[in-house]
Amino acid sequence: MEAFKISDRPTLAPKWFWDMDYERIDWQASYKSIIARIIERGGPEHWEELIRFYGREKVLKALKSEIVFLPDYAIEKVSVYFRIEKEEMLCYIRKRSKPGHWI
Fold first, then answer.
1. What average pLDDT does the segment 22-43 reach?
2. Looking at the 3D structure of the chain, how many domains does it have?
3. Which residue range is the domain that position 50 belongs to?
């Protein structure tokens, strides 16, 4: 009987990583940029794959205290989907602390 093996990479299409060599991505070392990219460009089915691969706690930790930028629409979606306040997210706090350009 073959033992269950957890994949060494998430099940995410190479199209999400057009600017990287997909076969050489270090999925653990690059987790913050991978999570940010998939949160920004993907949908709930892709977010579930992040949770499956990295674990909910690691994804939430990245969202709350490690990812420094997400666009407003992604912050809104993440807040609703993960049931976290925008004010708990570093990217939102940083955005609020920097005044916008006056033009």
1. 96
2. 1
3. 29-97
Position 37 in a domain:
yes
The whole-model pTM stands at 0.86
Distance CA 85, CA 70 (A): 14
pLDDT at 44 over 60: yes
89 Cβ partners below 8 Å, 6+ apart?
63, 64, 67, 70, 75, 78, 79
Q: Residue 49: enclosing H or E segment and its boundaries?
A: helix 44-54
DSSP states of 50-75? HHHHH-HHHHHHHHHHT-----HHHH
Alpha-carbon gap, residue 60 to 41, rounded angstroms: 17
Which residues fall within 8 angstroms of residue 22, CB to CB, at 6 or more apart? 14
Q: Is residue 13 part of a domain?
A: no
